[in-house]
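Pinned message: reference record for DFFA factor
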Amino acid sequence: KVLIDVPRSDLAEELVQSETKIQVLQDTLQQVLDRREEERQSRQLLELYLEALKTEDSILSKVAEREAAPRKEMDVVDTGTSSTGISATTALSSQVLAALKEKPAPELCLDSQDLELVLKEDAAALASALGWDKQKAGALQEACEQELSKRLKQVQTLHSLRSTSKGKKTLP
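Predicted structure (tokens):
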């Protein structure tokens, strides 16, 4: 850096070389410095990218663990008998039922596993457990199905991006 900053005429006189050769020398030294800076920036960018991948992997593994973990809080709620005399039961936890009743958009508040449980429920049993009509319960199940589908598409897209980024060995 010092050799680049020295005036050409002074450096030429000190090294007993022509100013043309000194200009070539200074240009070459500047190119070396520029290349080193680019390499340093590339390394930093690569480190950030690898750190982001590690963070993404840890988040995805936590999500996978949570979804794979058995649910211990499941209760069977007996809502009594329906007008046909058949007992209407639901395997949804009281927390899920409370969220379904109280939230304006409950499908956004539930995790994917709870959404799947809501979808597996019989619409009549769900309506009875929530104290709603069957049409409102069906609409809720449809909203849950759409949200779950959207989440699954996001996960697929994330996996696709990850596999694409792992396939590339060099940065552009």
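Pinned by admin. Summary line: The mean pLDDT is 80.
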